[in-house]
Amino acid sequence: MYLIIVFGNLLIILVIILCSHLHTSMYFFLSNLSFVDICFASTRVPKMLVNIQAQSKVITSAGCITQMYFFIHFVGLDSFLLTVMAYDRFVAICHPLYYTVIMNPQLCGLLVLVSWITIVSLFYCTSLGVYLSSAASHNSHSGAIASVRYTVVTPMLNPFIYSLRNKDIKRALKNSLGGKLEKGQLS
């Protein structure tokens, strides 16, 4: 499943970079979302796979804190990027004549930057809540199932949900798989 997450999202990023007709704000945000999904899954899945292989549940305090920092960071970033993507679609639908003026490259870059900065600042509030919550009321089995579902399944399905249902991405994938990628004929 982890390989599907990484390769599926990398494929989406690669197609968006290589196909010039996908160089729009929507696909810019989608490529950022794919990158964040790879990072998000990479915060937990490799350690989880090592633990399964070694049949161990041990993690150092520093490892746990680092893992939680990046997990919370990428979960929040995922949420903000989805919000920015929703705003992009709102502008495209409700103000189609002003879309290119409103969603210019500077604003798109700024929205992504603000998403990253906001997550760093929100991390401190969220981490405080984690440290103040009681570990005694936590059921480890249900927590493990929820963690796998959220950490692995969601990033694995995002390329399919946001990209493969999209006719532009499908056409670009067909062109790239048809040999046009090697010839540089994507446009």
TrEMBL record:
<keyword id="KW-0472">Membrane</keyword>
<keyword id="KW-0552">Olfaction</keyword>
<feature type="transmembrane region" description="Helical">
    <location>
        <begin position="7"/>
        <end position="30"/>
    </location>
</feature>
<dbReference type="Pfam" id="PF00001">
    <property type="entry name" value="7tm_1"/>
</dbReference>
<feature type="domain" description="G-protein coupled receptors family 1 profile">
    <location>
        <begin position="8"/>
        <end position="117"/>
    </location>
</feature>
<dbReference type="GO" id="GO:0004930">
    <property type="term" value="F:G protein-coupled receptor activity"/>
</dbReference>
<feature type="transmembrane region" description="Helical">
    <location>
        <begin position="144"/>
        <end position="164"/>
    </location>
</feature>
<protein>
    <submittedName>
        <fullName>Seven transmembrane helix receptor</fullName>
    </submittedName>
</protein>
<dbReference type="InterPro" id="IPR000725">
    <property type="entry name" value="Olfact_rcpt"/>
</dbReference>
<feature type="transmembrane region" description="Helical">
    <location>
        <begin position="68"/>
        <end position="87"/>
    </location>
</feature>
<keyword id="KW-1003">Cell membrane</keyword>
<keyword id="KW-0297">G-protein coupled receptor</keyword>
<dbReference type="InterPro" id="IPR017452">
    <property type="entry name" value="GPCR_Rhodpsn_7TM"/>
</dbReference>
<keyword id="KW-0812">Transmembrane</keyword>
<keyword id="KW-0716">Sensory transduction</keyword>
<comment type="similarity">
    <text>Belongs to the G-protein coupled receptor 1 family.</text>
</comment>
<feature type="transmembrane region" description="Helical">
    <location>
        <begin position="107"/>
        <end position="132"/>
    </location>
</feature>
<dbReference type="GO" id="GO:0005886">
    <property type="term" value="C:plasma membrane"/>
</dbReference>
<keyword id="KW-1133">Transmembrane helix</keyword>
<keyword id="KW-0675">Receptor</keyword>
<dbReference type="GO" id="GO:0004984">
    <property type="term" value="F:olfactory receptor activity"/>
</dbReference>
<keyword id="KW-0807">Transducer</keyword>
<dbReference type="InterPro" id="IPR000276">
    <property type="entry name" value="GPCR_Rhodpsn"/>
</dbReference>
